[in-house]
């Protein structure tokens, strides 16, 4: 007789909360212990809802490829994202992805390089007095600002320099508020005027005003515009509703801001921790493009810099991959109930010792030409399959150019005594920020 598949094993749940409390207090610590005790598939409960955590690349392949039609995204936080591309499913998602995809193709990404250069030249200028006075710089704030300016300039044709701090504050309130609400068993509706709810709705309003302001400005200008916002306004000749465009603007702004801002921060952390790596990047830059920022043609020549970016995205991938099962399924021999939350942490898969020997060691050589081939699902900083990150190519080019701008002008050293630990909110950020001292490399 063939045995019925069982639910994956896991730690004993609290009768009402399931594993919410342990997960919320320390997601990576909790999941790492669960992997140690139960293996690569862990059965959990988030409140009363079944959840399955997957770490093994073979199992992730089933989720994102072989059985992908059985797994959908959950509509969360409609008040923030509305029906934007990252949260909708089915025909609506296909239509949106088709509309957006051309703006993320390599040709468009390369076309945006001069805009990225402008933003980075401004950063290098702004940092000069900070380097001269050797005062600590909060790099996490700087990198989130940079990520915001990048996405606004390249995709929305907007200069957010003066609004950057307000937008960043609103986005931070939303990120914390969403993480908090996700793990609350009893959620008061947002209209109940608690201080948290008021702050959350205030942040939504601030971003709404920004998005609707951009839309109104562009409609008033009436000219032809060759950017994504222009395409959204005139979707296939039909004027789209302001609400639909606002949903897309907020989705892209927040997806890019959180993930790119955090990824750039981790990159700077790596450069500060490994000065010999920064020096090698510096040498490569000098040999490839002299003292200029890399052009589109120069980027493929930055092989070592690219290895550093790839290895940083291995050690500090910022995203999570989360789906909900439509029907019951089997993954890795275990039953996945219908309506279960099935989730993957690239951060933990990228530390799977079977696929990444000595996983905690920072070693760009893992990505050198001729290094052993990877299991396609063992490295997923941008996800895999049809719902993988739309902005992956943007993020890589932004990372290469940011490293180039920073390293060719400055040496970074960590302010001593600070604790650097990852905080896995929606996007994995350094919990206490990242403070560095900038030292000029002596050529301006
Ligand atoms: C280093 C930076 C970034 C990282 C690590 C990252 C990572 C991710 C991950 C892990 C996903 C989820 C994939 C899944 O659920 O299967 C995702 C989705 C997405 N990302 Fe990114 N991302 C980054 C930058 C960006 C940028 C710059 C943009 C846009 C300008 C962007 C737009 C999106 C969108 C729209 C989705 C949803 C795609 C869909 O559901 O069809 N991301 N990203």
Automatic annotation (TrEMBL):
GO molecular function terms attached to this record: heme binding; iron ion binding; monooxygenase activity; oxidoreductase activity, acting on paired donors, with incorporation or reduction of molecular oxygen
Residues reported in the UniProt entry to bind heme: 389
Keyword list, A-Z: Heme, Iron, Metal-binding, Monooxygenase, Oxidoreductase
InterPro entries: Cyt_P450, Cyt_P450_CS, Cyt_P450_E_grp-I, Cyt_P450_sf, Cytochrome_P450_monoxygenase
Highest taxon above the source species: Bacteria
Cofactor dependency: heme
Family label: Belongs to the cytochrome P450 family.
Identification of the protein by name: Cytochrome P450
Source species of the chain: Candidatus Segetimicrobium genomatis
